[in-house]
Every structure is written in C-alpha cells, then in structure tokens.
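Suppose a colleague, Dr. K., hands you the sequence of a protein chain of 93 amino acids and asks what its three-dimensional shape might be. Before reaching for any lab equipment, you can write down a predicted structure in token form. Begin with the sequence itself:
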Amino acid sequence: MDYTVKTSSQLGMHLRSLRRAAGKTQSNVGSRTGISQKRLSTLELNPGRITVDQLLAIAGALDFDVVLKPRHTDALAAAAAGDGIADADATRW
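The predicted structure, expressed as tokens, is then:
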C-alpha cells in the first residue's frame, strides 16, 4: 500500500500508524535507529524538522522504502529526458 504525504503533519500520522501497525513501540524503533524515544515522539507529533537520515532510518526500521514518484506520468518522461534518466526505477530510493 502507498501512503501519500503532502504535509509534514501527514508524515507524522503515517509514521505513527505504521509503527503501531507493526506492533513496535517508539523505544523499539529507537533501538534500531539510534533515535531516542523522546525524539521519535516529537517527530510523530511534529515532523517538520525531521532529517532525511532520520526519515530513512525510521522507514527502514518499519520495513518501508521512501519513494518519490511523479504525480503524472508526463512529469516522469520530462524528468527522464532532462536528466538523462533511462527508466522509472532510477527515481526510486
């Protein structure tokens, strides 16, 4: 299932719901990521200052990937033509 994030508050809600669905506590995720339980709580409630490294670590601990994809297939074709990207997989992280 894909989770669309358009605002920082949506990111926090998704991180919290994914963690809970995985049956993990903030402490569990913290021990896997090196992020304190207090910081994880802050990020779930107010993720506006999350770093890319923190987001990737949390996603990995929850067995998710962070993927950027175009809203429209036209945008992918234009990006590929302008950046020399040969296929859609090149946009996956």
